[in-house]
Specification:
Oligomer: single chain
Number of strands: 7
Shape: globular
Strand content: 5-15%
Largest sheet: 5 strands, antiparallel
Helix content: 55-70%
Number of helices: 20
Length: 362
């Protein structure tokens, strides 16, 4: 089984238009799309299919860059950054979210459209990525622009902020490092280095002693949470709760869900799932995570029941297959193990040697 990468997940968050063509001497006419529940649903399904087919531009090309630019330009320093060499190119790179989604699928994970709703006159579509025991959700708002449906902005659960705020924070950080490296960004840079060097207590001290200056950057809370997880895992959920007045509830719930799942805390995992379903939709990945929490807790019967049910409601993903095998083996169900092994062979084209290695592992 691939290692649980909860800390790597939260650290990775931190580190890491068309033109008119002429035909027959006349401008091509583009039919304006009406903004309706049906058209928004079709729009979302098109994005979903594109990502599953390996096309990052399925989402990148429908993000309204002009709207995001207008939003981030409300920060006068960021606005000036567009005139700095490389500023526009950096802005464009910050909006390339599709590659993360495609990478999750290519790594044996999954991508799905999980919910559509309207709130205060705005249409929302929610997507989910899954990769190596880590989920993330994107709650995008949709409107028309130039006669087409476009993503206007959206809340990114693992970042804990709107896409526009994530771009704004990244641009501000990049610009200040270039133009005023002795400003508050030096403390953020120091905390990043301390985090990468596993100096977690030092990183927390650096961040908290400069909180007032640094909390304008989304990376502040991302770094703080990553280091809190590493310094006191047993009380991580309690330490997260202490931040509830500082961070969005959706961000808090996602971190709790991933923590409880990987720790095998079944009841707490279920509570987080029940709190998230009304927000992001009743996604089968939740049952997979609940099953995994049972597996970590060594309740193999319940875990297997979850995995078998999930298997009927979403594509076979690598971790689902591997965990089903582990349950069959733990329960000494040799027939079930071999049947499951064959399904994986058909799905992943594995050699007999690779299958034998799976049979022989602990």
């Amino acid at each position: 089984m691939k290692k649980t990468l909860y800390f790597a997940f939260i650290l990775a968050i931190i580190l890491g238009a068309g033109c008119n063509r002429q035909k027959n001497n006349a401008k091509e006419h583009i039919e304006a799309v009406a903004l309706t529940e049906a058209s928004v649903a079709d729009f979302a399904k098109g994005i979903e299919q594109g990502i599953l087919n390996g096309r990052a531009d399925a989402i990148d090309k429908v993000i309204d860059k002009d709207n995001i630019r207008q939003l981030v330009s409300e920060n006068s320093i960021v606005y000036s950054g567009f005139d700095v060499e490389g500023g526009q190119a950096f802005f464009e790179r910050c909006l390339q979210v599709g590659q993360q989604m495609v990478a999750a699928v290519n790594n044996g994970g999954d991508f799905a459209f999980t919910r559509q709703y309207s709130d205060k006159g705005q249409h929302h579509i929610v997507f989910r990525t899954y990769d190596n025991y880590v989920v993330n959700f994107y709650d995008f708002t949709v409107d028309t622009s130039g006669g087409k449906l476009m993503i206007q902005d959206g809340f990114i659960f693992n970042a804990g902020c709107l896409l526009s705020k994530s771009v704004e924070g990244a641009m501000l950080y990049n610009l200040m490092l270039k133009t005023n490296p002795d400003s508050e960004v030096k403390w953020l840079l120091q905390a990043e280095e301390e985090t990468k060097n596993a100096q977690h207590t030092k990183a927390i001290a650096t961040l908290q002693s400069h909180q007032e200056a640094l909390q304008q950057y989304p990376a502040y809370h991302q770094l703080l949470i990553a280091n809190l997880h590493q310094t006191d895992r047993a009380h991580f959920a309690t330490r997260l709760d202490a931040l509830k007045d500082e961070i969005d509830e959706r961000h808090l719930l996602l971190h709790k869900l991933l923590y409880y799942t990987n720790e095998g805390k079944v009841t707490e995992t279920e509570e987080c799932i029940n709190a998230l379903i009304p927000i992001v939709g009743d996604d089968p990945i939740f049952l997979f995570l609940y099953g995994y929490a049972n597996l970590v807790a060594k309740d193999y019967d319940n875990a297997l029941q979850c995995f078998v049910t999930v298997d009927k409601s979403m594509p076979l993903i690598w971790d689902l297959w591997q965990n089903e095998l582990r349950c069959h083996k733990a329960l000494k169900d040799n027939e079930g193990f071999e049947q499951c092994l064959k399904r994986g062979k058909d799905a992943y084209g594995m050699s007999d040697k690779e299958l034998n290695e799976i049979r022989e592992r602990d």
